[in-house]
Design goal:
By secondary structure, this protein is mostly helical. It folds into two domains: 14-114; 116-145, no CATH class. It has four helices and two strands, in the order ββαααα. It has helices at 26-89, 91-110, 117-131, 134-144, and strands at 14-17, 20-23. The chain has a two-stranded antiparallel sheet with strand order 1-2. A hairpin with a 2-residue loop joins strand 1 and strand 2. Helix 1 (26-89) packs across helix 2. The radius of gyration is 44 Å and the shape is elongated.
Length: 145
């Protein structure tokens, strides 16, 4: 082994063999440094290429988003124009449809639906069935099934 090392002095990389740790020679140390530098250079080139790809993707996404926004705006404008021309052409029907829609929405949100004739008839038949003797009720059920 080489001499003792001082505190803070650079220690060369070592290779572990059968006999323990053997220090690398200066030639192997420079080869490893060159390999590291080439690897770092290769990685930095790859990183630059990735950054370029991310920037181009960001630009593509922004462009596609801009096109989609314009398409939505154009479609909304066309729909608005269609509705406006229809209302101008048929003002009475437009007011009638808007009133009917408002009435239906108001009825659904405020009060339960009114009970119809079928509901009242069912209630009366249920009351009558509860007054019948059990053996008659069973006979009616058997006939219905």
């Amino acid at each position: 082994m080489a001499g003792t090392k001082k505190v803070g002095e650079k220690i060369p990389l070592a290779v572990v063999g059968k006999d323990g740790i053997s220090e690398t020679t200066e030639n192997e140390d420079t080869t490893m440094d060159e390999t590291r530098e080439t690897t770092i250079a290769h990685l930095s080139e790859n990183l630059k290429a990735l950054r370029g790809q991310v920037e181009s993707l960001s630009a593509s996404i922004a462009q596609a988003g801009g096109k989609a926004g314009k398409a939505v705006a154009n479609t909304a404008g066309a729909a608005s124009d269609t509705v406006t021309s229809t209302v101008r052409t048929y003002p009475f029907y437009s007011v009638l449809v808007a009133s009917a829609a408002a009435y239906l929405l108001g009825r659904m949100s405020v009060a339960p639906p009114p009970r119809g004739v079928a509901d009242r008839t069912y209630d009366r038949l249920s009351d009558l069935a509860s007054r019948l003797p059990p053996h008659l009720m069973d006979a009616v059920r058997a006939r219905l099934h």
